[in-house]
Each structure stands twice: as structure tokens, then as C-alpha cells.
Specification:
By secondary structure, the protein is of the alpha+beta class. It has helices at 12-16, 23-39, 89-106, 129-138, 171-174, 176-186, 193-202, 204-218, 264-279, 293-301; strands at 4-6, 47-50, 62-66, 76-81, 111-118, 142-152, 167-170, 225-229, 235-244, 247-255, 284-289, 305-316. It has 2 domains: 4-140, Gcn5-related N-acetyltransferase (GNAT) (Aminopeptidase); 154-311, 3-Layer(aba) Sandwich (Aminopeptidase), CATH 3.40.630. The strands form 2 sheets. An 8-stranded mixed beta sheet has the order 5-12-6-11-10-9-8-7, sandwiched between helices. A 4-stranded antiparallel beta sheet has the order 1-2-3-4, covered by helices on one side.
Length: 318
């Protein structure tokens, strides 16, 4: 098996330039890593190259680990680069990804994920997606989720009057327990492949508790978690945003099974839009399973713009 090592601080610029001769691309990678280091998503010791990587013009392979802030183990790997056009890349990838998995296991990871986005975009510049996909599958990774990515910008989305059919109550008033119960309810029959599989594996109650705990780890600003009730006080759905002031994502949005098909997803999206706007967020992201056409349609109707697709890969390490 190939051996890998963390880079030294004086190798960071060379690490960022692997796979490109374009200085702006390398600078984008450096800015991305600097942000991850500052926010606790990664650190220098989690940036790896092969121990014997010594090409004449610099390194040829790299990877970095990513985690939710506060955790000590890796959740995913990012910035994967290999000599993709080399005829020997399948063998190189197999050895390198085996070493990456072994290192993640040594650091305490029980699973390891990776996201592949299309089209090519900053900061990861994931060119040759078919070759990347084949290498990941050969290394034991499977597709856990296939999604469409949507972007929210305040200047593109008109302000709407509040979701008049629903009364909203936030986490600050209610605490965790109602959100755990609501998560259990709205994930029943979900069209989200990974969420549904995790729910089936853990059971509805345990999954709801674990999901809410993970959403908290991703970050939550005041007002970002809301439950929507009808006039009779019955739960209709939830919208949970995650992130920080510099980025935000819809962690989850959903309607309880008995109220689906009545347009309440629109009320929840209006509330989510209003919360993003009130917080001063410049850009929001939402990922939906490509099979979840109702959610895609609702986002487009509310001014969210499709900008990419994403495949999320996963491999169990134990």
C-alpha cells in the first residue's frame, strides 16, 4: 500500500497548485483551505501527499480531510487530485485511496465521504468526473446521494408576505425535543435517499435525535430553526437552516405526511427566505435528491437557481 504523510507548512502553496498550472486556481484552493483552517473544518496536518511523491515539477497526488467543527475525526476527504490522464491512474488511485482510508480509520473515522460536483467550479476544480467516479467505485466507495444544487441570492428573490396559513415557533422558544419529534414525523416517506437509508438503519426515534444533533454541530443562528403549525395548533412542517453568517444551507425542510400535497412547502420556503434575508445572508445553498422533483419545482418557483449537480460517495471503514 502507498504511504502518505502530512505536508509541512512550507509546502502548502505547492499542495494547492497540484493538478494545475493556473495561478488563480491555486490561489482559490489556498483561500478555501485558509477558511477551513480558520473555521475548524480542517488543519494543516490533515493535508496529505504520498511519502515518495517526487515528480520533477512538484507533487502529483493530494488529499485533505474535512470535518464538522468540534469533532476530532474526519468526516470526508476533499481536494482529491491524482495524475488523472496517466494510463496508470487506476492503480495509482487504488493505492492512494487505500492509504487515505487507512489514515482516516487511524484518526477515528468509521465512515468516509466525498462529494463530486459538476460542472467544474472553484475551489475544488473536479475535472474528468467519469474517471474520478470510476476510481472511487474501484476503491469501495458507493453513491449515497445524487443531488441537484440550488442557490439563493436575496437580489433574485422578491420579498413575500409572511406564510399566512402557518404560525411559526422557533428553537429559542421550544428547545430540542419538539424538533426531534418533528424530524421523526417529516422524514417518514422521505425522497432523500441517504436520509431514508439512515432512518431505516437507525430507527425513526434514534435517527431523529442523531439528525438534530448533527444539525446543531453544523451551526445555527437565532431564528434559523422553525416549526410551522396550522390554526388549530397541529404541526404541519419544519424548516431548519444551518451554517454561519458567511454561508447558509437548508439543512432540512419538510411537511408531515398527512399534510403533503396541500402546498405547505411553499409556506415553509417563504419562511426560510425571510429568515435568510433577515440574517443578512448573501448566498444560501440547498441540495435536493434528483428524484425529489416536487422539492426541485418548489425551489425554482421561489427563485432558487439550479447551479450544479453533486454525487455524495460513502465508504464504511469498519
Amino acid at each position: 500500500m502507498m504511504q502518505i504523510r502530512p505536508i509541512r507548512s512550507d509546502e502548502l502553496d505547492a499542495f494547492c497548485a497540484i493538478g494545475t498550472s493556473d495561478r488563480p486556481r491555486a490561489d482559490a484552493v489556498r483561500a478555501y483551505l485558509d477558511g477551513l483552517f480558520a473555521n475548524g473544518n480542517s488543519h494543516l496536518d490533515w493535508c496529505y501527499v504520498p511519502t515518495d511523491d517526487a515528480a520533477a515539477d512538484g507533487f502529483t497526488c493530494r488529499v485533505a480531510f474535512w470535518k464538522i467543527p468540534g469533532r476530532t475525526r474526519p468526516d470526508d476527504f476533499i481536494l482529491l487530485e491524482l495524475p488523472w490522464t496517466d494510463q496508470k491512474v487506476p492503480g495509482i488511485a487504488a493505492r492512494f485511496l487505500a492509504a487515505v482510508a487507512a489514515e482516516a480509520r487511524r484518526l477515528g473515522a468509521e465512515t468516509l465521504g466525498h462529494a463530486l460536483d459538476h460542472p467544474v467550479q472553484a475551489p475544488q476544480w473536479q475535472e474528468l468526473p467519469d474517471i474520478r467516479d470510476a476510481c472511487l467505485h474501484a476503491a469501495g466507495f458507493t453513491v449515497a446521494r445524487d443531488t441537484t444544487r440550488f442557490e439563493w441570492r436575496p437580489e433574485r428573490i422578491p420579498e413575500e408576505d409572511g406564510a399566512a396559513r402557518l404560525v411559526f415557533r422557533g428553537w429559542e422558544e421550544l428547545g430540542d425535543a419538539p424538533f426531534v419529534a418533528a424530524t421523526r414525523a417529516v422524514t417518514e416517506g422521505t425522497l432523500d435517499q441517504r436520509l431514508g437509508e439512515e432512518r431505516d438503519e437507525a430507527g425513526p426515534d434514534a435517527h431523529a435525535r442523531e439528525f438534530v444533533a448533527e444539525m446543531e454541530e453544523l451551526g445555527r443562528l437565532p431564528g434559523w430553526w422553525q416549526l410551522g403549525y396550522d390554526a388549530a395548533g397541529e404541526l404541519v412542517g419544519l424548516v431548519m437552516l444551518s451554517g454561519r453568517l458567511d454561508w447558509a444551507t437548508i439543512g432540512y425542510i419538510g411537511v408531515v405526511p398527512a399534510r403533503r400535497g396541500q402546498g405547505f412547502i411553499n409556506d415553509l420556503l417563504v419562511k426560510g427566505d425571510a429568515v435568510l434575508r433577515e440574517t443578512g445572508i448573501a448566498r444560501g445553498i440547498a441540495d435536493t435528491d434528483r428524484a425529489n422533483r416536487p422539492m426541485d419545482t418548489a425551489l425554482c418557483r421561489h427563485g432558487w437557481r439550479e447551479f450544479a449537480t453533486r454525487r455524495e460517495y460513502m465508504r464504511k471503514l469498519i
